[in-house]
Fold these 2 entries.
Entry 1:
Amino acid sequence: MTTTDNTMLEVRDIKRDYELPGGLFKPKKIIHAVKGVSFKLERGKTLAIVGESGCGKSTLARMLTFIDEPTAGELIIDGEKIDTRPGHLTAEMRQKVQIVFQNPYGSLNPRQKIGDVLGEPLLINTKMSSAERRDRANEMLVKVGLGPEHYNRYPHMFSGGQRQRIAIARALMLNPKLLVLDEPVSALDLSVQAQVLNLLADLQDEFGLTYVFISHDLSVVRYIADEVMVMYFGEAVEYGTREEVFSDPKHEYTRTLFAATPRADVESIRARIARKKAATAA
Amino acid sequence: MALLQIDNLTVEFETASGWFRAVDGVSLSVEKGEVLAIVGESGSGKSVAMLAVMGLLPWTAKITADRMLFEGRDIRNISPAERRKLIGKDIAMIFQEPIASLNPCFTVGFQIEEVLRIHLGLDRQARRARAIELFRQVGLPNPEERLNHFPHQMSGGQCQRVMIAIAIACNPKLLIADEPTTALDVTIQKQILDLLMSLQAKNGMGLIMITHDMGVVAETADRVVVQYKGKKMEEADVLSLFENPKSNYTKALLAALPENATGDRLTTVSAFFEGAPEAAETRA
């Protein structure tokens, strides 16, 4: 493998098929969720994956985090080719990649205290003593903008934004290098979204993290991403730097996506009001 | 005369630690053929205020208002029977979760025909014809076949179209849309918003759009009410709101939009209020 030193993640023609079992008279059906996606991502950069529901972006995230096994294709993380067959993953590999899910109300166990949420990855993957684990959890709480006083609380005592901070903290407990964020801010309010995006930017600077940021919100993508990939029905229809994709979209679907995104600038509001006036006058 | 006029609406809920005020002295009005957007974060009382108008709040809620007029008629203390005649006919509402707001046990055809039967008293054939016409109007393909489908057989965008078809079935004078596109993809969102706007223009309905998305506001509203913690922060026409926001909270909301980011960090709403914690409370 001749990956350069600076490449954190390389994906080559990765595929994932799901099999729907057939019945007595119904043939079984194969769904091609991801149909051969390739990309390269440098250390400390952010790749945004955009697309509508059902386009395979979450399936891709599941493959990157080893939750799902790819049907075909290669996954190279930190210069190492990953053997994704069940039972062949090393603990070290699992520590390098972590994931933050979309819904912070669903991704935290309601019966687990925050301290245990954060300590669990350490308990499973390391030989740290409980005192050490506690210290690390408290440190991490401070880093994500919470405090040691939150250690003994339960998830229901937190707001959506705070829960997402906890989910991020949990993902960072094992010092991963690659963080996969599956729609981390789409369940949050605008002002809380700004806070979480700022936190992600701060953490990226501090730990040199590489992000794969899955989103359907183009204004967020434009703000956070270095590179953008647009997926449509399991295929990457557009892939390039943020400037390339936003200034000169090549594929028809990307253009549709841009046209559908609501615009909140004064000029487009003026244009809309003028159109409406013309329509009522006519 | 305004289509809907609310003066000084307050909604309170009793909690273990006393009365919680979800809506605090909100006044607003909608004219015929006007699109009013109510913007606010979760917990700002924007949905609760409209549920109070619809009479859909549980009996534990304490609703007080100086005035609550629909077409000049007081709707504060009308009897349940009278309210049932009004709601779903002259005032209709679309909810956020399209799949959850349809009954999974009945076909969508049954659910739309129920509205036509109860409010308009149409016979079986007329109901079916009208239902097909409505489905065609909201852009559902194969309406005849679609009537026999159950909600789970359709996508979220299609379910929302069915909800809109049910809401406009009796040509309501006022349509309240509570986050109608939040659960949908941007391309579907665009279709649904375009559909709502064209129906609104065609039927001349008043439309109240409840949303937290400033983009949706910019794309749809004539006038905007900004709410925060149950209070009205600002009311302005859409252009002046974006061009020249008066209240600090609106300024903070606009600054938190990723497209308005200056530098490499976003301005957060709390950062806006740090200098003056009381600033959030000042009303425009």
Note: The first strand of chain A starts at residue 7 and ends at 20.
Entry 2:
Amino acid sequence: MRFPFLLCVVWVGLLVGATGCSLSPLSKRTASFATVAVAATKDSASAYEVVERSDYDVQVASLVLNFDKDGFHPETIQPFLSSKDMEARTRVLEALKQYAETLAEVSGNHPLEEIDTEAAALGSSLQAISSNGDLQLLSANAKFSTEQAGLAATAVDALGRMLIEHKRKQRLPEILKAMKEPVSHICSLLEADIGDPEKGGLRNQLKNNYDTLIVKQQQYLHHYADTMTASEKRAAIERLPKLAANAKRADAALAVTQASLAQLAKTHTALVASAGEKESPAFRVLLAELIEESEQLHGFYEKVAAN
Amino acid sequence: MASMKKSRQTKQVRKANIAADAPSAWQQTHDAFQSLKEQLTAAYEDAKARAAQDSVADALDEVDAMLRILNQEDMASRTVDLSAAADETEEAVKKLEALKQELEGIASRVATVAKVIQGIDDAIAVAKACFGIA
């Protein structure tokens, strides 16, 4: 009985040694990338919302100025992007977010934690049966020490971890590689959507919308200043610098989102390239930059929406 | 109905192609309107009389509407590519989901073994009671 037990100890030791206690380098990198990628896709969705909101505000400002002359026709209030164009963007951002979220789930600690939990439950069951005196009453050969039960549970845990890592090593690089081009393409399309303040795209539409809002606010003041109380006039005038500040803030948010999309594509490419490597300093640097950009945006869009 | 849909799609594709195939023509048009907008905005700020301000503002509305259409066209020119990229990404998500299920399957097999052993433990208690083992 002593010899097989020793063999078991050696086998478990080898298994634990082979699997290690932590994630593989690629799984670790994928999990870190996925977390930041989810944030980047959310920021991109906010970019469209900010422009849509400013576009809506322009239409309402026109309605206010022209209401006496033209009245209200609901059909004249239209979103900047048609439902078809917006749907394509919502779909691609949702797909990208899901890709990042599922990557995080697959490559993170969760599958290993699950196997630990189940192996612990198995250990408890084995301990219970090994200490069950009735088993020995039923069969004299059914001897199973608590020590052996613990060892078996550790072995199952190590084996499960090894299987998980094996499957990840086998399948993750292939999925990541297949997504290298699509992720780069999506990011460059979304970057082009964000555009430039002077040349076109969301940033240009945003700039034009805010410039128009400022003109319309002045027009409102010129039309109705005579009928306003001093405090109403003050509030209407105070709105002008607020609009100018908000325009700058919103454009800065779009610019950072645009930069983070470029960074997201580069980081994903570096992640794919690092598949067989233990260390990847290039990936680490790019990821750090992506995290920095993501942190810069933290609460940025909320502030724009609040003003 | 189908032909109307097809003709609408053709128009959209043509519209998208104008933006995609002739970006410089689109850009030139956009630049011209953008420059006009800047000039009109400056003119509005310089105008003193309300009538003059209002007529400049009306002209600005027209230019704004044109710039808005140009920007909408530019955005629409990328919609087809974005939809295709969404398809590819959804495919990758399906593969990842399958891998996730396989990984979960490993843990669930261990859970099944634990349950079986728990079942044996319970069965011993039943057997003991049935056969009157003291």
Note: Chain A has one domain: 21-105+172-306.
